[in-house]
Protein: Small acid-soluble spore protein alpha/beta type
Amino acid sequence: MASRGQRRLIPESRARLHDLKYEIAAEFGLPVYNPQYAHIHPSADSEFAAELGEFKGSANVEWRYLTSRQNGSVGGEITKRLVQSAERSLSEYGTL
Structure:
């Protein structure tokens, strides 16, 4: 984990990682509340996940109410996708 005073190399990446976190949570069927979509409908994330056939509930929760395993699976998937993206980028430039 980066220290609070550490400068980020690409500050714009924070927003994309935030979006990716909620995207993966929806794919996994986790009913996580996303304040970005609160103005649309309070249960928009759950509805999206239900459309994917992953989540049958109706209430959104905060990250702190999920289990460590659920939160860890989201973090692990983020890491997996970032590594795949980096490998793809490197192979396009002939580095790998």
About this structure: The radius of gyration is 16 Å.
